[in-house]
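Dear support,

Our group has been running a series of protein-ligand predictions, and this particular one with phosphoenolpyruvate is the one our PI (initials K.S.) wants archived with full inputs and outputs. We had some confusion internally about which version of the output was final, so please treat the block below as the authoritative record. The input we submitted was:
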Amino acid sequence: MAVTEPSWAPSSWRGLPAAQQPDWPDDAALADVRERLRALPPLVFAGEARSLLDSLAEVTEGRAFLLQAGDCVESFRDHTAPAIREKLKVLLQMSAVLTFGATLPVVKVGRIAGQFAKPRTSATEVVDGVELPSFRGHTVHSDEPTPEARVADPERMIQAYYQGASTLNLLRAFTKGGFADLTQVHNWNREFVAASPAGRRYEILADEIERALRFMEAVGIDLANMPTLHEVNVWTSHEGLLLDYEEPLTRVDSLTGRWYDCSAHMLWIGDRTRDLDGAHVGFLAGVNNPIGVKIGPTATSADVLALCERLNPDRIPGRLTLITRLGAGNVHELLPPLLRAVAEAEHPVVWACDPMHANLVRTATGVKTRHFDAIMAEIEGFFVAHRDVGTWPGGVHIEFTGEDVTECLGGAEAVLEEQLDQRYLTLCDPRLNARQSLDLAFRVAELMRSI
Ligand code: PEP
Ligand code: CO
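Confirmed final output from the archive:
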């Protein structure tokens, strides 16, 4: 079934109010970049987006779990093989923990290979006493704190395309070429993780997985010929924010004749751009990829139902993921009515919990951070709300990095407030480091078993 409305075209959004778009200074340069993007090959194949849709349909039925994770915003500077590999390792580790703990397939979706643009609450920010246009991601401008550097440059969208392409290429190579083979389960544990409590717990789990594999071999199962043990799917996703980038990468699929946004397998709409009559909803309503919408604390049940109707009128399972980010203090009160409303309307959705974006705090010295306990409290509230209403807690959506950063507070090997400035590297929101991410996965697996 197609979701495309009959009168929809990739450029239809231009007639609608488009929030959070950069102030491109030169229309001719922008038009030229759009034309060049339109002529470049798609980054993903529509058939892959359909495979992801099928996997997400399993999540709507409660037969699988979604792990969507990656950077808040990817950097043009940090475009190296180790950076990509370390992120993939953490994703594979988390997914092994969740799969083993919950005995369910985990659908792995990275915030990767295209997550280059940021919505901002305020148009300007003050850096070292100077007021500048807020940083909107490397696909728009540099993060250098000067007025010249913050001028939007459309050429950067071409660079984003090529960085997305080479990141995706390496991801495919790693995930299909042996790196993600389940027999490598020990090798995904890095030294600075392995020495932590979560890392030691992971070693025990990896031993158990190895024993299970040896057991299967011993009873005569031919593991060498089981592709699912040797290859995994890691899908790509980003916020479909910059419509001048998404539009030219939206193509008609040659097999089905339908529109797909071929910049990533899955796109999501941010909490700031989920206006029902706005350009982002109008744009993503017409593409056939699986899509997500962030649901913040101001969303009412009526808002959520209207989004379901508009974005998934044919009620295709797997098409729509609702990513709630309500805050640890709000989730108990705000989530159950939303769950009931969507269940009563019989909309098949994936419910995912983003425990990051409504739990941002500033330290006394003004550093943006998140506390691991608040993150876990929102996830726990999410599981409790689903248990009470009788719906399936379908997944988590988090911001992490494979590096040993000190951006979020707490975790089993606690990052303390006075340590935040040791390795605070993010370009935007604070991310969980590799240890905290693994710790989170163990705790989510426990919640899945106990609730
Ligand atoms: C994000 O996911 O980085 C983000 C900006 O989220 P939200 O739209 O939920 O604020
Ligand atoms: Co963020």
